[in-house]
Amino acid sequence: MGSDTPKPFDDAPYLDLFSPEVQADPPAAFARMRARSWLVRTPLGAWVLARDKVERLLGDARLRSSLLDFVRLQGLGDGPMYDSLSRSLLAVDGPDHTRLRKLVSRAFTPRSVETLRPAMRRLAERLADAFVARGRCEFMAEFADQYPVQIICELLGVPPEDHPHFARWSNSLTWVLSTELRVHLDEVADAFLGMGGYVETLIAERRREPRDDLVTRLIEAEDGGDRLSLLELQSMIAGLLFAGYDTTRNQLGIAMATFAEHPDQWQLLARQPELAPQAVEEVVRHLGAVAVAPRFTDNEITVDDYVIPAGTLLMLSTGSANHDPAAHVLPERFDITAERLPPLTFGGGAHYCLGANLARAEMQEALTLLSRRMPGMRVDGDVQWRQRTGIFGPIRLPLAFRPS
User: I need a labelling partner for 310 at 20 to 30 A (CA). Which of 253, 254, 321, 335 fits?
Assistant: First the structure.
């Protein structure tokens, strides 16, 4: 496919991700490079920037997950935590991935998620009730830190009094998906032991006394005589708790910060709540909590006009793809009424985000309610952000609005 004489990878332009210019404004740097080439070389392997190439390569079976390579580079190469990661959906490929995903995916179909919407609305109302009369809140602590973790814990069957543990563990485990894992290994290990021990006890309890929850259904899940092993169960449940909390928490914070910068869009959503699904798609396109999907080439591959060597860490930049002017009209504009291609923030191919339906529903319900109950929303102080080394979002987001 592509050119008759593909170019060697070394001919691709180089981008120093760690230069002060790039660090000051990564999206602007990627936009400049994307205008020159869909592929760039960096200190962290190759980055794919164009929408059409990112979308195609997300589903390319010649690429595999780079999670284990990524954590080995940062000093995590063996032990119980590595073994658990190696059996997670993020790390497994091929028939193993298909098998694991088939055993768990029924819980995350659109129909299954729809049954959770009333619980989402009740929880969002209760959390909002605690601060709307004041006309201000620290949104992350008072809403985002509590809302998604309570939904995923309720789905799994974790009792309410234990929800704070999972929020704390998840906050630490997020370093696994960042370039700062090495300096946080002790914190990550402590969180892994805490969550792992809890999940092991939870599985044992559900084996003795099954309940109507996802943990019980995962234990009982069977396909042609196949069941999840204990290690697979532990990895799956821990992975769902982490993914169901941290990414949604951060994406919800990003949504509120973005709407605070675009008050006309916030007013529009309050007036037309039927725009909520489209608003969520625009939020995750405009600025995703996850902006890259890492992959690895075990063999040399040719993609259009470039030959990419075996052993290349290939970073598929969904954040850049979501702002590609070749795919989106006025991509820098935040517009919840715009008709656009689906965002690539949830990934694609075999590794498409398992919880995408759940995350979308949670944000749709929350933003619909909050736009109605927080009129005139604006930022009310200094916003503290995570560094762009992994999952991104606000740490602290003070907001003010007209009391309701």
Answer: 321
Residue in the structure block whose two tokens are 């928490």: 249
Phi/psi of residue 307, nearest 5 degrees: -100, 120
| Domain with residues 7-400, CATH architecture | Orthogonal Bundle (1.10)
pLDDT of residue 222: 57
Token couple for 376: 């005139």
Alpha carbons 204 and 219: distance in angstroms, whole number: 10
Contact status, residue 256 vs residue 128, Cβ threshold 8 Å: no
Closest CA to 327 of 39, 17, 49, 29: 49
Q: Which residue has the tokens 């039927």?
A: 274
pLDDT at 139: 98
**How many CB atoms lie under 10 A from the CB of residue 35?**
11
Q: Which helix (H) or strand (E) is 160 found in, with range?
A: none
93's tokens: 């490929």
The 8 Å CB, 24+ separation contacts for 340-345 are: 340/281, 340/282, 340/285, 341/51, 342/281, 343/281, 343/284, 343/285, 343/288, 343/318, 344/51, 344/54, 344/55, 344/58, 344/318, 345/284, 345/285, 345/288, 345/289, 345/290, 345/291, 345/318, 345/319
Whether the CB-CB separation of 394 and 257 falls below 8 Å is answered with: yes
In this prediction the pTM is 0.90
Q: Tens digits of per-residue pLDDT, 321-360? A: 999 999 999 999 999 999 999 999 999 888 888 888 999 9
Kindly list the strands in the beta sheet with 45-48, ordered across the sheet, starting from the edge strand earlier in the chain: 39-42, 45-48, 312-316, 293-297, 63-65
